[in-house]
Amino acid sequence: MGPTSVFTFVVSVTTITTQHSLFSVPDFPFHSFPFHTSTLFRSLILIAVSNFNLRLTISYLFKMVNLGDVFPDFEAETTQGQVQFHEWLGDSWGLLFSHPADFTPVCTTELGRFAQLQDKFEERNVKLIALSCDGVESHLKWIEDIRAHSKVDKFTFPIIADEKRELAIQFGMIDPDEKDATGMPLTCRAVFLLGPDKRLKLSLLYPATTGRNFDEILRVIDSVQLTAKYKVATPADWKHGTYCMVLPTVKDEDLAELFPAGVEQQTLPSGKGYLRTTPCPDQ
Ligand code: BEZ
After folding, report:
1. Which domains are delineated in the chain?
2. Helices and strands in the chain: count of H runs, count of E runs
3. Over the Cα atoms of the chain, what is R_g?
4. Pairing of the two strands 232-233 and 244-246
5. Which sequence positions are flagged as catalytic?
6. Residue of 97, 99, 103, 106 with the most ligand 1 atoms within 8 Å of its CB, for mutation
7. Ligand 1 environment, Cβ below 6 A
8. What's the pTM value of the predicted model, to 2 decimals?
9. Crossing angle of helices 105-116/136-150, nearest 10°?
């Protein structure tokens, strides 16, 4: 077997295994090619096909985590030592949020805000974990700046060191428009809220150039936690404590038992009674 044949064989195996195991795409129809098709020609076709498969494979393997999916477990180096994500989460809710880089102005204000609001997240049983694409030593020095800037002594949550962007790429947390000095794309400002079942409950993606709104982050946590417990949804601009919408799936005969504080049905031009409000059920 000459080198070209070995190469063809390796590429063929790659192609056929990726096609079969991941995508169930039918075999490439070499049998329908003329008998004299040269090895080189076959190789070129196989390379083209396997490059296509490689792209599909990468997008398959690194597919975004969808709402309701179990967030993948991972091991990472952090400012508080090595973390095995699922074990670290335990039975708590979790908020994983990413930052473009250490020692950058917007990120410093954001991490300062997380530090100022640590008690609010604890009250909600939400564990915080940040990610930035620099190393642990850099993170630890940066934390001193963050504490000075935000005037907080305690900084209790870990920052993941994702220097090679491995996690950022895996979880779709890259902002291709913002690059570091070496031309590598930076991490965007992602927020992933996970429930105690480790499933993704909410995700927010902001570009590197837009700092997050922390009232909104707390507000959506309140909504997601409330709606996990009661058969309600929260309306536009809802704030914790204000009225909620009864889920359309709740039958009229169950209203009294589920909502002892009462339900009001609004009259609408359509005559349909879908707009039913109830006082916030956890008040
Ligand atoms: C910042 O944190 O200020 C920042 C980081 C990357 C791009 C733009 C702004």
Report:
1. 3-61 (no CATH), 75-213 (3.40.30.10), 230-278 (3.30.1020.10)
2. 9, 13
3. 26
4. antiparallel
5. 107, 197
6. 106
7. 100-101, 104-107, 178, 186, 208-209
8. 0.79
9. 70
Between CA 16 and CA 25 the distance in angstroms is: 9
Find the 189 Cα to ligand 1 centroid distance in Å: 10
Kindly state the tokens that stand for 219: 């507000």
pLDDT tens per residue across all 283 residues of the chain: 444 444 444 444 444 344 333 333 334 444 444 444 555 665 565 555 555 554 445 445 556 899 999 999 999 999 999 999 999 999 999 999 999 999 999 999 999 999 999 999 999 999 999 999 999 999 999 999 999 999 999 999 999 999 999 999 999 999 889 898 899 899 999 999 999 999 999 999 999 999 999 999 999 999 999 999 999 999 999 999 999 999 999 999 999 999 999 999 999 999 999 999 999 999 9
Q: Which parts of the chain are beta strand (E)?
A: 75-78, 81-84, 93-99, 126-132, 159-161, 174-179, 185-187, 189-194, 200-206, 232-233, 244-246, 264-265, 276-278
Look up residue 146 and give its two tokens.
């963050």
Q: Cα(237)–Cα(220) distance, rounded to whole angstroms?
A: 10
Residue nearest to atom 8 of ligand 1 (CA): 209
Q: Which atom of ligand 1 is nearest to the CA of 107?
A: 2
Count of positions (residues) in the chain? 283
CB of 194 closer than 8 Å to CB of 200 = yes
